[in-house]
Amino acid sequence: MAQYAEQMRGVIDQAASGAYTTDASYAIGPIPQDTPALAEGENVELVRSNCSVCHATTLITSQPPLPSEVWHAEVYKMKEKYGATFISDENADRIVTYLSAHYTPETRKAESSTAPDRTSP
């Protein structure tokens, strides 16, 4: 277990919050009840059937766009550190290919630039 110096216990380095005002208003909306679907594409069923054994696919769709190298590291971390040894290296590479095709900064930018404009009536 990690050891911390006594004077460091309970210390969190956070920036001080801004000044509070009495006229501030806050609102909350409904919590989404649906799980964002995985993007359709080659190997999506492989992702569904392998990744969802251990976690919801929301773990994938809720991530910020990650570079291909990071997806590769994440998939192999799942195999080597988290016990997903049932995924062969070949299938792991196919999963990385799928994630790289749909969930990288480049692919997300391409998707958003081709999305229909929903701001005009």
Brief rundown of the structure:
This protein is an all-alpha fold and 121 residues long.
Structural class: mainly alpha
N-end to C-end Cα span: 58 Å
Give the count of helical stretches.
5
Let me know the average pLDDT.
81
Hey, roughly how much beta strand do the residues contain?
Answer: under 5%
Q: Biggest β-sheet, characterized?
A: none
Helix content: 25-40%
Oligomer: single chain
CATH architecture type of the domain at 46-113? Orthogonal Bundle
CATH class category of the domain at 46-113? Mainly Alpha
Roughly how many Å is the radius of gyration? Answer: 20 Å
Helix-strand string: HHHHH
Question: Do you know the CATH topology of the domain at 46-113?
Answer: Cytochrome Bc1 Complex, Chain D, domain 2
How many beta-strand elements?
0
Tell me the overall shape: elongated
**Runs with pLDDT <50, length 5+?**
115-121
Give an overview of the whole structure.
The chain is an all-alpha fold. It has a domain at 46-113: Orthogonal Bundle (Cytochrome Bc1 Complex, Chain D, domain 2), CATH 1.10.760. It has five helices and no strands. Helix 3 (68-80) packs antiparallel against helix 4.
